[in-house]
Amino acid sequence: MNPIGLVGLGKMGANMARRLARAGITVHGHDASTAARLALADEARVHTHDSLPALVAALRAGCAPMSPAVLWLMLPAGEATTTALTQALALLEPGEIIVDGGNANYRESQQRAAFSARAGLRFVDCG
Fold first, then answer.
1. Taking the model in full, what pTM does it have?
2. Residue 126 banded pLDDT, cuts 50, 70, 90
3. Has residue 13 got a pLDDT over 80?
4. What is the 3-state secondary structure (H, E, C) of the chain?
5. Where does residue 123 fall: left (phi above 0), alpha (psi -120 to 50 degrees), or beta otherwise?
């Protein structure tokens, strides 16, 4: 099974990372907070990275050939999500997947879906 990338390792994101890892899925995570990354240091199958580019590189390296990387954003709605999505658009390749798990306004999600589509990415809003 391919790994999943998780951006935002706060309360919800960290718990998602733990549940996914305990179910046998490798998780590559990133959070701007060093403390959030360190809180997952002892969790088997969770690998934290100090930058989004490092996360994407590790995520892609773990994916099966011809299989899209999945990057899941668990960030607060607004600027944090917009910034991470903008960075992700520059790092991901066409056909890869971005999941927005934040609580965004549906109009923001529609705009993000359009930005993603123009970059050839698939966008899933599940906030």
1. 0.93
2. confident
3. yes
4. CCCEEEECCCHHHHHHHHHHHHCCCCEEEECCCHHHHHCCCCCCCEEEECCHHHHHHHHHHHCCCCCCCEEEECCCCCHHHHHHHHHHHHHCCCCCEEEECCCCCHHHHHHHHHHHHHCCCEEEECC
5. beta
